[in-house]
Design a protein that fits this description.
single chain; alpha/beta; 6-stranded mixed β-sheet; 7 helices; 6 strands; 36% helix; 11% strand; binds iron/sulfur cluster
Length: 237
């Protein structure tokens, strides 16, 4: 059972397991989730390095595993190009976007609302349309201040499991995995970015907090778009 693999002591795993043991654990979590959820298990692919690693891990469990990408009108050209390449490599990756009209520069005046409309809503749509019972993310607890309290297996919405199979990986271990497996990555990393998002809300930043370049100058600085913190199933909205 997937729950049997759950652990409360995430910090101990971060420190205690080596790279190979972490890869093995991630694969085991995905394998178990796939055995229990089958086609209801879907990977959320943000086109960032962590998603690329998780997508590669999932594809090594089964090439049939499906995924979805949530994109917005504000994604940088490099990300849009990389998305087109990934979708042509993997047609089982579906793209969701919300094209509804929003006020000009909503990202500056109300970034929470902007993310809710452009990111959270299409994520809800993906989960509904793809009949998802378990979604897989590339979230990691070492990414920054807002990500320390997550678990590998969560059920934030009743009936919808969220699996974070690389939760305990360090940033360098993600790059180790991607390099060793020659995985295609978003070219923006070559420019110095460490965490990717929409262009108005993402800057190149240095330091300990990997997500420090997100939403700089707003109350959301280094924070979350909402897909990991808000309800995703209709009945809870
Ligand atoms: S990251 Fe910025 S531009 Fe993108 S949806 Fe959120 S607030 Fe809007």
């Amino acid at each position: 059972m997937l729950e049997d693999l759950a652990t409360e002591d995430v910090a101990e795993l971060v420190e205690g397991l080596n790279f190979a043991q972490k890869v093995e654990r991630s694969l085991e979590l995905i394998k178990q989730a796939y055995a229990e959820h089958g086609d209801g298990m879907v990977v959320a692919n943000s086109l960032g390095k962590d998603s690329s690693a998780v997508w590669h891990l999932a594809k090594s469990v089964s090439p049939k595993i499906r995924g979805f990408i949530v994109t917005t009108r504000f994604k940088p050209p490099e990300t849009k190009k990389f998305m087109a390449e990934e979708v042509s490599r993997y047609p089982e990756l579906r793209v969701f976007r919300n094209n509804e009209e929003i006020p000009d520069k909503l990202y500056a005046t109300d970034p929470d609302k902007c993310c809710e409309i452009l990111k959270v809503k299409p994520t809800r749509q993906a989960i509904k349309e793809m009949n998802v019972t378990c979604w897989i993310t590339g979230l990691r607890c070492t990414e920054g201040r807002t990500r320390t309290a997550f678990k590998e297996i969560e059920e934030r919405d009743i009936g919808l499991i969220k699996l974070n199979p690389i939760l305990i990986w360090y940033e360098r271990e993600v790059w180790e995995y991607l390099a060793l497996n020659r995985v295609h990555v978003n070219p923006l990393y070559g420019k110095g970015y460490r965490s990717l998002g929409c262009w108005p809300c993402t800057k190149i930043a240095q330091g300990k907090d990997e997500r420090a370049g997100r939403w700089i100058g707003t109350s959301k600085c280094g924070g979350e778009c909402g897909i990991h913190t808000k309800p995703l199933l209709d009945y809870q909205i």
